[in-house]
Write a structure and sequence with these properties.
The structure is a single chain. By secondary structure, the protein is α/β, with parallel strands linked by helices. It has 3 domains: 2-104, Probable tRNA modification gtpase trme, domain 1 (Gyrase A, domain 2, 2-Layer Sandwich), CATH 3.30.1360; 126-204 and 377-436, Four Helix Bundle (Hemerythrin (Met), subunit A) (Up-down Bundle); 218-259 and 267-351, P-loop containing nucleotide triphosphate hydrolases (Rossmann fold, 3-Layer(aba) Sandwich), CATH 3.40.50. Helix content is 46%, strand content 17%. The protein contains 17 helices and 12 strands. It has helices spanning 25-33, 85-96, 108-115, 121-132, 136-146, 149-173, 181-202, 207-213, 227-235, 278-293, 309-315, 336-339, 354-369, 380-397, 402-407, 409-423, 429-436; strands at 2-6, 13-21, 44-49, 56-65, 76-83, 101-103, 215-220, 253-259, 262-268, 296-301, 320-324, 344-345. Strands 3-4-5-2-1-6 form a 6-stranded mixed β-sheet. A 6-stranded mixed β-sheet has the order 8-9-7-10-11-12, with helices on both faces. Helix 7 runs antiparallel to helix 14 (380-397).
Length: 443
């Protein structure tokens, strides 16, 4: 089957790119241009007509990529036309009238590229992440994965396990022959090294996943301290209702933001106080849950509420920044006990020190979740496979005798399989749907 789809973004644009891939690609080009195929990989000006008539649709650039030297590994072409909806619809209609052609499903071009061995699963996922990236740090992470360093590392670990497995299976196949003692000893040493390398990768504070999904920041504090106003300032719009009435915010209000290049999910929470209102009490419990699960808490108080010492002891921690809002009310009488928490003084009303607060947030995220050149995990799928690999390597390590080594071959096979599933070296049909369904149509 030959597939086609709009690969550039929807909506009016100067140029739209329509991609075609499959065995009938040559037929599509011949039926829509009525000319010989252009030279491969050279942009060629062409008039595009309806496949069923000589009626002109548009004039644009045609690119022809004969397989297997194409993105998908199949015959592939791109129509670069003017980006109006009628032109795009007409091109789609013309292609659909050609036998064996249908509209592509989300991610189908990349899925075919994977199935034809043009890319591995890690690169396929990083392409999706690059397309959906909203901040610079997310773009950088996607590019690092695309460069192949992660795939090379996991492939290297897998090849080392395969080598170990071959020695074990040699013993199983030829039980009358004794393996040299140094080989058995080296197997133990090498297996332990591989396990420790994977455990080091797993001990990453989930930085890759945090960057991909967004750092979780919660705004917490007593009522009427300015929490909702701070959320609105960060969002540059009215996300939360601001009122002088205490307890206005009952539920958790979340917004996804690009905070100077950092992807964040900021949550405004219910004001913490003693309350008899059952709904408000539930909101307060939700706020306290957010405190536990956030990467960073902005604890917001104001000069009139500086007697909340017990409250501060519970909320201020290593993952908190104490913010004293409404500094225009006066900060001369701030208790020395409060100053021990190194608060930042701001005024949302007068927009004072808010840029400084943003810098503090960025500095906190950099210091605690700074990307290094190490291999990092970006998806739960990777983490689960690595954890399963470690589990079977530990089972293998528990085998003490040569007879046990014979039985342990299955543990090594499973450990190798889980590593292979990360990059797609084994049958992964059951997970392809969940991966490529997240793609946009045309990619």
């Amino acid at each position: 089957m030959t597939i086609y789809a709009l690969s550039s973004g929807p909506g009016i644009s100067g140029i739209a790119v329509i991609r075609v891939s499959g065995p009938n690609t040559k037929k599509v080009l011949q039926n829509m241009t009525f000319l010989d195929l252009p030279k491969p990989k050279i942009a060629t000006l062409r008039k595009f007509k309806f496949s069923t008539s000589d009626e002109l649709i548009d004039e644009g650039v045609l690119l022809w990529f004969p397989g297997p030297e194409s993105y998908t590994g199949e015959d592939m072409a791109e129509f670069h036309v003017h980006g109006s909806k009628p032109v795009i619809d007409a091109i789609h209609l013309s292609i659909s009238n050609i036998e064996g052609c249908r509209l592509a499903e989300p991610g189908e071009f990349t899925k075919i590229a994977f199935q034809n061995g043009k890319i591995n699963l890690l690169k396929a996922e990083s392409i999706s992440d690059l397309i959906s990236s909203e901040t610079e740090i997310q773009r950088q992470q996607a590019i690092k994965i695309m460069s192949g360093r992660n795939a090379n590392k996991f492939n290297s670990l897998r090849e080392r396990l395969i080598k170990i497995l071959s020695n074990i299976e040699a013993k199983i196949d030829f039980p009358e022959d004794d393996l040299p003692k140094d080989i058995l000893k080296n197997i133990k040493i090498e297996t332990k090294k591989i396990k420790e390398e994977i455990e080091k990768i797993l001990d990453d504070q989930k930085v890759g996943e945090r960057i991909r999904e967004g750092f979780k920041i919660s705004i917490v504090g007593p009522t009427n301290a300015g929490k909702s106003s701070l959320l609105n300032y960060f969002s540059k719009r009215e996300v939360a209702i601001v009122s002088e009435i205490a307890g206005t915010t009952r539920d958790v209000i979340e917004t996804h933001l690009n905070l100077d290049g950092f992807p964040v999910i900021i949550s405004d929470t219910a004001g913490i106080r003693k309350s008899k209102d059952e709904i408000e009490k539930k909101g307060i419990n939700l706020a306290l849950d957010k405190v536990e699960n956030s990467d960073l808490n902005l604890v917001v108080i104001e000069p009139k509420s500086i007697d909340f010492k017990d409250f501060l002891k519970k909320l201020v921690s290593k993952k908190s920044i104490l913010v004293i809002n409404k500094m225009e009310l006066g900060i001369d009488n701030i208790d020395e006990e409060i100053k021990k928490y190194n608060p930042i003084y701001i005024s949302i009303k007068e927009e004072k020190n808010l840029n400084k607060l943003i810098e503090m947030i960025k500095e906190f995220l950099k210091n605690n979740f700074l990307l290094s050149d190490d291999i990092f995990i970006t998806r739960q799928r990777h983490r689960v496979n690595l954890e399963n690999c470690v589990k079977h390597l530990k089972n293998f390590e528990e085998k003490k005798s040569i007879d046990d080594f014979d039985k342990a071959a299955e543990d090594l096979r499973l450990a190798t399989r889980y590593l292979g599933m990360i990059v797609g070296k084994v049958d992964v049909e059951e997970i392809l749907g969940s991966i490529f369904d997240d793609f946009c149509i045309g990619k």
